[in-house]
Amino acid sequence: MLRHIVMIKFKSDIDLKSESEMLKSMLIDLETSINSLQKMEVGLNISTKPSAFDLVLTADFIDVDGLDDYRVHPEHVKVLDYLKKVIEKVHVVDYII
């Protein structure tokens, strides 16, 4: 199994609550449209620390090929296009579990 973790920090000039909820919904919807995605969990930050990110997603795939399929899937690409407009910073970690 492969785990894909993404931490997202939104731009400071957006409505954080609204955008966080919208992105969470978009990401959770991917579970039903992308076969290689085994499981996804999306969390919204509750920390007030300046170093905190706003949203984290954890997604599990059978293998690297499954993650590669996810990356280019049209529904995921729609999410990426949206993200380009609202994110300030993103960090990604992929590892075998």
Can you characterise this structure?
By secondary structure, the chain is α+β, with helices and mostly antiparallel strands. It has a single domain, classed as Alpha-Beta Plaits. It contains three helices and four strands, in the order βαββααβ. The protein has helices spanning 16-33, 64-72, 74-86; strands spanning 2-10, 37-44, 55-61, 87-96. Strands 2-3-1-4 form a four-stranded antiparallel β-sheet. α1 runs antiparallel to α3 (74-86). The chain starts with a strand and ends with a strand.
Reconstruct the topology from this structure.
Blueprint: E1 2-10, H1 16-33, E2 37-44, E3 55-61, H2 64-72, H3 74-86, E4 87-96
Antiparallel strand pairs: 1-3, 1-4, 2-3
Helix pairs in contact: 1-3
User: In order across it, which strands form the biggest sheet?
Assistant: 2-3-1-4
- Span between N and C termini? 5 Å
How many domains is the backbone divided into?
A: 1
CATH top level is Alpha Beta
Element-level helix/strand string: EHEEHHE
Give the radius of gyration. 13 Å
The percent range for strand residues is: 35-45%
